[in-house]
Amino acid sequence: MLKRYPTVRYIVTRGGWYFLTFLVAVTLNFFLPRMGKSNPIDIIMAKVGGGLDTKAAQAKEEAYLKEFGLVELDAQKNIRRSADGKPVRTPVWKQFRNYVGMCLRGDLGTSFLNYPKKVVDIIKQAIPWTIALQLPTIIFGWIIGNVLGALAAYRRGIFDGVFFPLALLANAMPFFAFGMLLMYLFAIIWPIFPAVGGYAGNLVPTLSWTFLSSMAYHYILPFFSIFLILAGGQAIGMRSMCIYELGTDYVKYAKWLGVRENKILMYMFRNAMLPQLTGLALSIGQMIGGALITEMIFSYPGLGMALLTAIQGNDYPVIQGCTLLVTVSVLCANFIVDILIGFLDPRVKAGIAGGGK
Amino acid sequence: MPIFEVDNLHLHYLTRFGAKIPAVAGVTFSMEKGEVLGIAGESGCGKSTLVNGCMGLFIPPLWPTSGNVRVDGESIMGRSPKDVRKNILGRKVAMIPQGAFNSLNPTRKIKDQAADMIVSHESNVDKKALYERLRQRFDLIGMETEKVLGAYPIQLTAGTRQRCVIGISTLLDPKMVIADEPTSALDVTTQKAVIRMIFDLLDKQIFSTMIFITHELPLLRHVANRIAVMYAGEFVELGTTDQVIFDPRHPYTKALMGAMLSAEPGQRQRKPVAIEGAPPNLAYPISGCRFAERCPQVRPECRVNKQEIRIVADRQVRCDYAE
Amino acid sequence: MKLLLNLLKTPMFVIGTTIFFGTVLVALFAPMMYHVDIIARVGMPYMPPGKEHLLGTNHLGVDMMSLLIKGLGSSLYVGFLAGMIATVTGTLLGIYGGFKGGWQDDFITLITNLFLVIPTFVVLILISSSLKEGRSLALIAGIIGATAWTWSARAVRAQSASIKSRDHIALARVNGEGTLKIVVKQILPYLFSYVFMVFIMQTASGILSEACISMIGLGPYDTVSLGTILNEAMRNEALGDGAWWAFIPPMILITIIVFALNFINTSMEGVFNPRLRK
Asked: A288–C121: do the CB atoms touch at under 8 Å?
């Protein structure tokens, strides 16, 4: 059945592969932070303890250990103890199993720093800001960057001569450096835009005009930090691809045929876009990473800030929760782009349908 | 009135350091309606360059130095690119490029590419009528229309793609067709199919005049009325097919014939003799005859005197000492 | 050799190499000419640039110039080391997979693609945050290299696979030359220029990665790098105070270095790939 519908087969193949990647990612997400030797409970103890006598401190520690699934429990949900009275630690693989179970139930654990707040709640608060900032920026940045790159490749001349070095510069600057620069120029030296936050500090999130306009105002600098660098990078790549396409045999032949210039440009654009889409799939991870760091710089109340606070405070559950979310988003985005490419490029479907690699 | 005239054409390549390399040095010939001219020569002798310069469209780094090309008495050099695109390309002169089977846009269906061509030359074209026209034409030239038109290039074999390209290039019934090595890199059966198609198109009067480029002389015997032999950017011999193949007068042509494997009766026992040496590097100025280094009949005067075209035994020969 | 001469004629290449080697020289030799001290507090916090301290002081009152020179060296070191690790690992895997083919190739490709999709940023954070102590420069370089190899593996594998199918290799095989000899005599010369470009890219990206990871606080624990300088600036409100000397110089340095490396790469691409010539 699958052989008869190359499209379906393609989607299923890619989907399966992404699922495998997802499994690997979840495993990595769990095991990598545990590479170090630190005992995570120490952090909470440091926050809460101090001043209590040892007996009470020990009891508290054990309560936390129990809560975070780090010790084995017996049938009555009491802590199982070894011969010398010490609690038996859950082996790592069991912790992993519990972790996966929890994730599937939608529970990403409890924050250390903001105990007893749940990780999911922290993320839920931050996510809308991140999506609102990153989604339009990445989409527009990508589209406009590619269009500019195509123009530069086709026009050459002065446009290319001025534009290309600028784009190279934009590409060399790390996301955050550019963000810092913009902030310094337009928020400190010329205080046109606000430097930090998602909205003015004295306001409370409501659907009022004041709030919304403040939000928009705070949106601008972070938006441009990401957008300009992203567009610059895309432009450079697209320019190379277009230059390549302009030299192909089929473009030459189209010229020999007397095909209109606009149509030839369309050929060039559509064919150059395909590797750009592939590149998009590969670099979405980087883009989101860079955008997150930009959020950190502007103290924008999105996932970036949540992550930064967690990192600085060693809040492992939150770190893990955020990274898992980011990884899943990247995988989903990749999957979508893969399907898009499959639809746009007949060679890909032919490759899969033919059974080739 | 000759349908196609090339008048002392000089073409050069512009390198990235600004140097001009003369690739075609003074080619002159003319063709009457209904004639098939074959151009033969070694790889790199300038055959493709020459015909690329006969379209009126110059793709860098190739540029015209001097000379003229006329189709139906009308000059096609020195006109605006828009004029060339609209009126000459596809209508007056059509090109079937080298490696045609790779010349199709991989992400576009055959019928769409063909449609693009027509739409670029005619205004107010009705989509349905256009596709009907394509279908009729492809039927006429013997392609499996339904299968081919709706397909992407990758779904077709090289031979089919080659024939598609021939079909597309001749959609507007051009006066003059240039076929640059249309059968190279194809297997023998496919080659035959391509040749048969070309003859079919000639029969059906879709076009009448053709330049056929190849490095295989025996092929030209079946296809061409006249043959021009090219070497290092110049024509060295131009005569009828029988003249050039069976009675060559220029030393290079003679050597070329001697280097051919021939299946002709009585010729099978003959061993092919390779031509020693390599063509001259056109980046450096050449004095005297360009073939002098490799000519078996070279004389000291050859290296000094530039050879001009003479008429020897009813055909053009570029050698002072040929007879 | 001819390629080298052609390269030297390209302005992009010359500019790029000059800038890059300029920074390397500064990192290596400046400490000899300028007293570098990243511990001593020599002035008030966030003193603006003046006669005594060309680039002012940081939030602790330490001389910025010293921090910058030391940081430059660290960042270059990490970038270079990470670039080496990523390139060597990726190249070896890529050559092996591309040339050997078969299930080895499939396996390597699978692993490579897997790690390509998982965002390296995430992996970097996860690993670094767990290693609280002992985050030395070398360790960070190792981590960056360990996450970046996928890119070079993929690129080199593609090149190897295409070289493998080229005619002159088949000829060598037919002539009975051993696999190792084929690899060394035929493949390596072709690959070398490509791998070199990959290495430059990896170094540039290594420097950027280090800056990123240090900036969010997961950088080297005991020493200074350009990224940590930026981190400190961010944490101590340098931007808000208008202390531009605390973050603009490191930013400029990072940008210039990466820019120079990109230039080198683009110019090499222009020379090796004739289609890019106008």
From this structure: yes
ipTM for the assembly: 0.88
**B99 and B133 assigned to the same domain:** yes
Q: Do A172 and C127 lie within an 8 Å CB cutoff?
A: no
Report the SS3 class of residue A96: helix
CB interface of A with B, residues 34-93, below 8 Å: none
Q: Does B249 share its domain with B226? A: yes
Rounded (10°) angle between helices A6-31 and C102-117? 70
Is B84 a domain residue?
A: no
User: Smallest CA–CA separation between B16 and chain C, in Å?
Assistant: 7
Tokens 């970046």 sit on residue: C148
Q: How many residues make up chain C in this entry?
A: 278
Check CB contact of A325 with chain C, cutoff 8 Å: no
* Residue C86 in tokens: 């990523």
For residue B85, being part of any structural domain is answered with no
**Closest residue in chain A to residue B84, using alpha carbons only:** A258
User: Which positions in chain B touch C278 (Cβ < 8 Å)?
Assistant: 16, 60
Q: Which domain holds residue B67?
A: 1-79+216-323
CATH number of the A119-355 domain: 1.10.3720.10
Same domain, B224 and B319: yes
Which are the contacts of C243, defined by CB distance < 8 A and separation ≥ 6? C46, C48, C56, C233
Q: In chain A, which residues have their Cβ closer than 8 Å to the Cβ of B154?
A: 346-347, 350
Domain CATH for B246: 3.40.50.300
Does C132 lie at the interface with B, CB-CB under 8 angstroms?
A: no
Tell me which amino acid residue A350 is.
A
Check whether residue B206 and residue B239 sit in a common domain: no
Q: Is A344 on the interface with B (CB under 8 A)?
A: yes
CA C153 to chain centre: 16
DSSP calls for B236-249: EEEEEHHHHHHS--
Spell out which residues of chain A touch residue B116, defining contact as CB-CB under 8 Å.
254, 257, 259-260, 263
Q: Which of chain A's residues have a Cβ under 8 Å away from the Cβ of B117?
A: 257-259
Tell me whether the omega of the peptide bond preceding residue A116 falls within 30 degrees of 0, making it cis: yes
Residue pLDDT tens, chain C, 278 long: 566 676 677 777 888 888 888 888 888 887 777 777 767 777 777 777 776 667 777 777 778 888 888 888 888 999 999 999 999 988 888 888 777 777 878 888 888 888 887 888 888 888 877 776 667 788 888 888 888 888 888 888 877 777 766 655 666 666 665 656 665 666 666 677 788 888 998 998 899 888 888 888 787 877 888 888 888 887 777 766 777 778 888 888 888 888 888 888 878 776 665 544 43
A252 with B103: Cβ contact below 8 A = yes
Of C158, C274, B7, C42, which Cα lies nearest the Cα of A357? C158
Please state the φ and ψ torsions of residue B263, each to the nearest 5 degrees: -95, 5
Chosen domain end from B210, B227, B262 = B210
Antiparallel, parallel or unpaired: β B62-71 and B74-75? antiparallel
Residue A323 at interface with chain C, using a CB cutoff of 8 Å: yes
Whether residues B237 and B174 share a domain: the answer is: no
Interface test with B, best of A241, A249, A255, A256 (most B CBs within 10 A): A256
Of the three residues B210, B241, B268, the one that is the final residue of a domain is B210
Domains of chain C and CATH, by start: 2-277 (1.10.3720.10)
| Residue B5 bridge partners (DSSP) | B30, B70
Which of the other chains make 3 or more beta carbon contacts under 8 angstroms with chain B? A, C
**In sequence order, which residues have a C-beta less than 8 Å from that of residue B184 and are 6 or more positions away?**
B98, B214, B215
Residue range(s) occupied by CATH 1.10.3720.10 in chain A: 119-355
Chain A neighbors of B99, CB-CB under 8 A: 249
- Which residue from C122, C259, C275 is facing A172, i.e. has the nearest CB? C259
- Judged by CB atoms closer than 8 Å, whether chains meet at B116 and A263 is answered as yes
